[in-house]
Amino acid sequence: MNNRYGTLASWVYNLDKPVGRSFGDVEYYLERLAGSGPVLEPAVGNGRFFVPMLEAGFDIWGFDPSEEMLDYCRAACAERSLDVARVSRGTFEDFSHERRFAAIVVPLGSFQLITDMAAARSALRRFFEHLEPEGRLMIDLDAIEGFLGEGGRVRSWTTGDGDLLTLTDTRASTDYVAQTTVTHLRYELWKGTKLADTEMELFSLRWWGVEEFAMALREAGFTDVVASADYRYGQAPTKGCGTISFEARRPK
């Protein structure tokens, strides 16, 4: 159940964050990666970020642990006559690829789905091993302020058939020592006035301090660590920024 992205969760994600929807990250990375060699996107999801990069001509590959999310990504690729074989099933903990990459990009806070510190450090080392010499790791993290709300929101989306999908989030716990939150996500599909399906997921995230994450990158072997606020490269994060983008390099 934890960070599962099952049938209803993936459906809601695809409605809320369809392929091509940008939060500033698509344009930012199109610019940052211009002229780059092969790119890997872990946690590719429904292809929101992946497909525009592939359409722009990047030699990009991706993986995700959720088959339901991958189904959306593959369908989006097929609709655009793009190579569906570029995405596969894998996790941060076990992914492996024969080739090495000029860049690895984890946009929109997906790295924070790793809540165990040892697992996060292991993933950073695995990223390091999959980069070419002088290859770049690029990771977006949400600022701490985004973790401190109490939840309790109800959101809704209308499906293509006119049915209603709802999502209710309830904060279950906040661990200030482990720097983690756990939220109960209840998805419901309504056909008219009748509940047709429901799904419960646990959504767990970890927040990082800016210097803490920079230290973790250096510990994994990376150099030239730069933290940027809200997709403005080189602008130091300050109180009130929403997204912190880290860029680091594997040495020669």
TrEMBL record:
Gene3D superfamilies: CAC2371-like domains, Vaccinia Virus protein VP39
SUPFAM superfamilies: S-adenosyl-L-methionine-dependent methyltransferases
Record keywords, A-Z: Methyltransferase, Transferase
Entry annotated with the keyword Transferase: yes
GO biological process: methylation
Residue ranges of domain Methyltransferase in the record: 39-135
Protein's recorded name: SAM-dependent methyltransferase
InterPro entries: Methyltransf_25, SAM-dependent_MTases_sf
UniProt-recorded Gene Ontology molecular function terms: methyltransferase activity
Listed transmembrane segments: none
Magnesium in keyword set: no
